[in-house]
Every structure is written in structure tokens, then in C-alpha cells.
Amino acid sequence: MAYVRKEDAVAVRNELKKAFPDMRFSVRVRHHSVLDVSLMKGPSKFLSLFDDASDYEKNDMHRSLNHSHPHHYGKHESFVKKVSEIVHNAPGRADSDRMYFDDSDAQIDYFYTAFYVTLAIGKWDKPFEVMKKKK
Fold it and tell me: pLDDT tier at 75 (50, 70, 90 boundaries)?
């Protein structure tokens, strides 16, 4: 059964801070089985992720990311891969009993994973903000 703890979210948050010190992330546990990770503040280069977004997403500055297909995000592919790697592996690095696994098989409707992950830029109720450069 998929299960994620608050300690797992703390481990992910700490690694994201180390890897991306100039960005701000929201890392939350939802329904005890989903780890929600959203980039809330970052450089203006991430605005290009909204180029092919719907008008709704552009106006509200939020967009879901598919961590299973990082190649969809062009020049941001390495960023999505790095965030996905941290989200999936940080809990295991903090506690060896929390290694990520996914033995799911959608063809037989069998879903068995350590926990589920959602990645996003901004949130529906709090938009992505461009951080000003420090002088």
C-alpha cells in the first residue's frame, strides 16, 4: 500500500534546498500516499514552460509536470529529471527502510508503489512567482 510520511517530505525538502538554493519549493503530503512537490518561486526561465499551456494555466501561472516524461519539457528536461530523482530517492537516503519502489502493472490493474508523486510549477491557489535577481 502506498504510504508517505511527513519525515519523507522533510527529507525531500532538505535535498531540494541543497540542490536548488535559488528556488523555493512546496513539499506536502496529501492523503498519506501522495508527495506533492511544487516550484513556487524561481528564475524567469521557467516561464517558457507556460508557452504551450492552456489560457487558464497561463493566467493563473500554474502547471502540472509529468515526471515520467521529462523530455516533453525541452530545455527544462534536466531540471525535471533532477527534481524527480530527489523526490523518489531522498526518503531512502534519509532512512534506508524507505527506498522507493514501483511494482505496478497497469495492464492488469495492479498498483503497488512506495508512494505517488505529483510535480507542478505553482499551485491552483498560489501562482508561480519569478524571483528577482540579487544584486
Answer: confident
